[in-house]
Design a protein that fits this description.
The protein is of the alpha+beta class. It folds into 4 domains: 16-102, DNA polymerase, domain 1 (Orthogonal Bundle); 106-156, DNA polymerase, domain 1 (Orthogonal Bundle); 165-305, Beta Polymerase, domain 2 (2-Layer Sandwich); 308-368, DNA polymerase, thumb domain (Beta Polymerase, domain 3, 2-Layer Sandwich), CATH 3.30.210.10. The protein has helices at residues 28-43, 47-61, 81-93, 97-103, 106-115, 122-130, 136-141, 149-156, 158-161, 167-184, 194-197, 221-231, 304-312, 315-329, 352-358, and strands at residues 165-166, 188-193, 202-203, 206-212, 235-241, 262-271, 289-298, 331-333, 338-340, 345-346. The strands form 3 sheets. It has a 5-stranded mixed β-sheet, sandwiched between helices. Strands 8-9-10 form a 3-stranded antiparallel β-sheet. α1 (28-43) runs antiparallel to α2. It starts with 27 loop residues before the first helix and ends in a 13-residue tail after the last helix. The mean pLDDT is 95. It binds 2'-deoxyguanosine-5'-triphosphate and magnesium ion. Magnesium ion (MG) binds at residues 194-195, 203-205, 207.
Length: 371
């Protein structure tokens, strides 16, 4: 049967940083399937196909139209044979048998369950699976397993943390953090980042950048915030990592995955009375509060634009910004800096727009970075 290809389709870039991707996903039936494949390849530590399905999902998310037949995809980048085979199954039967097989697989289900606990990564999940463990109760009953502090908190607050955080809750937390940082120093700078900055309605945590306009004064800021939250009685968990950032060591040999700024991974107690419209909790939950995962990152002010760009995501958008910089511009980008390998110099930036301009990219708004 004939399927008309959408007319006047602009060429789609292979780089997410050259596409505009809002939170509206017209191809969710495909991208949900790809995301299951990404997960299983991640669990099996097979990088190539994992990356391929990530890129394919990202390309489909950027389309302002729904793919109706395989013919629609022939001008699109990053769609390989395997990807197209999955899409064909979905187009024909409404579902992919390959994906359904994974979804019903015991190992997949168990690893998915275990990695849903804060502090449990694929390595730990696999270790527990190999020991024959299949449920939380079996893990908690196993005397030979020593949970670290993060995992203990992960189990303790599992119900709350595995429940999505709403935008209203994120904004309530911004007020709480804002009050705390401004009580510490009037020149504090606070930015909501991560998924909520990209306009998402729900997230798995709430990400903030906190610093001070005066350089150097941001040192000690996070410990003071932590101290304040502790005194307020709302700090349920805190993993503080001091800064290992050293400007003289840039450019680092490999522009790394994780940045060197001071940061803390928190679990905070949020009261129902603090949230306009109320907490996003289960019906019948009468506690009047919930636990929420919050990340705070504290770069020095001259690194602010890089940190903001790096923490705003999406992860795929970040990956492709770096890949674009490296492959197309011979530059190195990370959360700290942008280095021009041709000129052998760092390129300064005070705003995200400066960074896009250095890269010769059109500016992409945060809500267009949901790649
Ligand atoms: P979600 O799941 O609703 O919280 O979605 P996001 O996009 O807020 O994801 P999240 O909170 O995991 O991370 C926010 C951004 O921060 C992410 O796009 C990239 C950055 N980020 C978070 N963790 C890391 C990390 O370990 N390394 C690096 N380089 N960036 C990270
Ligand atoms: Mg987040």
């Amino acid at each position: 049967e004939k399927c008309p290809t959408p007319t006047a389709v602009a060429t789609v870039s292979q780089y997410a940083c050259q596409r505009r991707t809002t939170t509206e996903n017209n191809n969710k039936i495909f991208t949900d399937a790809f995301e299951v494949l990404v997960e299983i390849y991640e669990f099996n530590e097979i990088e190539g196909p994992c990356l391929a399905f990530r890129r394919a999902a990202s390309v489909l998310k950027s389309l302002p139209w729904a793919v109706q037949c395989l013919g629609d995809t022939h001008n699109l980048p990053c769609l390989g044979e395997h990807t197209k085979a999955i899409m064909e199954e979905i187009l024909q039967y409404g579902r992919s048998f390959e994906v359904e097989k994974i979804l019903s697989d015991e190992r997949y289900q168990t690893l998915k369950l275990f990695t849903s606990v804060f502090g449990v990564g694929p390595k730990t999940a696999e270790k527990w699976y190999r020991r024959g463990l299949r449920s939380f109760s079996e893990i908690l009953a196993d005397r030979s397993i020593r949970l670290n502090r993060m995992q203990q908190s992960g189990f303790q607050h599992y119900g709350d943390i595995s429940r999505a955080v709403s935008k209203a809750e994120a904004l309530a937390l911004r007020n709480i953090i804002d009050e705390a940082v401004h009580a510490i120093t009037p020149d504090a700078v606070l930015a909501l980042t991560g998924g909520f900055r990209r306009g998402k309605e729900f997230g798995h945590d709430v990400d903030f950048i906190v610093t001070t306009t005066e350089m150097g004064k941001e040192e000690g800021l996070l410990p003071r915030i932590i101290d304040k939250l502790t005194k307020e009685g709302i700090l349920l968990y805190c993993d503080y990592q001091a800064s290992t950032f050293d400007i003289s060591k840039l450019p680092s040999r490999r522009f790394e995955a994780m940045d060197h700024f001071a940061k803390c991974f928190l679990i905070l107690r949020l009261e129902d009375s603090q949230v306009g419209g109320g907490l996003h909790i289960a019906e019948g939950d009468i506690r009047g509060w919930r636990a929420v995962r919050v990340d705070l990152v504290s770069p020095p002010m001259d690194r602010y634009a890089f940190a903001l760009l790096g923490w705003s995501g999406s992860r795929q958008f970040e990956r492709d910004l770096r890949r674009f910089a490296r492959m197309e511009r011979h530059m190195l980008l990370d959360n700290h800096a942008l280095y021009d390998k041709t000129k052998k110099e760092f390129l300064a930036a005070t705003t995200e727009k400066d960074i896009f301009a250095h890269l010769g990219l059109e500016y992409i708004e945060p809500w267009q970075r949901n790649a």
